[in-house]
Design brief:
- The structure is a single chain.
- The chain is built from 2 helices and 10 strands.
- It is mainly beta.
- The protein has a single domain, classed as Porin (Beta Barrel).
- It has an 8-stranded antiparallel barrel.
Length: 181
């Protein structure tokens, strides 16, 4: 699996440089611009396909006849070139139990096309005494299909900050879609 992800990342990196998009993409992440992002997450963890239980992306799964779905988005503002402060909100229905999620973090675009993100993600789970809190570490590649739109495949690792809720880390493969304006 790791080799497949590495191969895909190298393929996208090569495609990007062959098409000469490097100079065009840097204008999308300049100071004063906004970022709107939606992610899908595929990984393990306590919620299966939805990823970890605090989710600001899109997900849909059926486990043992129970449907689990989530919807959310993230927004960011570039405070300096290539560095955005981000926040996100999400809603999940976990087999009839609802959860509202939030995210706050920073995202840095190395050379304008290699995004790294660090964030805190938490949730308020209806009827639960304990709520999840995660430290997220994410890296990937921003493939700019136009100056204002990118597709961002990446890898994410979520470290639990609430041992009473979960002491497990969760690894995810993500595909993000971002708009820049």
């Amino acid at each position: 699996m790791k080799n497949l992800v590495l191969f895909i990342a190298l393929l996208l990196f090569t495609f990007h440089h062959v098409n000469g998009q490097e100079d065009d993409s840097s204008t999308s992440t300049t100071q004063g611009k906004w970022l709107i992002e939606a992610n899908t997450g595929f990984g393990g963890g306590i919620m299966g396909l939805v990823g970890h239980s605090a989710n600001t992306g899109f997900g849909l799964s059926s486990v043992d006849g129970e449907t689990i779905w989530s919807i959310g988005a993230e927004a960011g503002y570039f405070i300096v070139d290539d560095l955005a402060i981000k926040f996100g909100l999400g809603y999940s229905d976990l087999a009839g139990e609802s959860m509202t999620s939030y995210k706050l973090g920073v995202k840095y675009y190395l050379t304008g096309v290699i995004p790294f993100q660090v964030d805190i993600t938490g949730a308020s789970w209806e009827g639960s005494d304990e709520n999840p809190l995660w430290l997220g570490l994410q890296g990937g590649y921003a493939w700019f299909i136009t100056e204002h739109v990118s597709i961002e495949p990446g890898l994410r690792y979520n470290v639990s900050l609430n041992e009473d809720f979960s002491d497990e880390g969760i690894f995810e493969f993500r595909i993000g879609f971002a708009l820049y304006f």
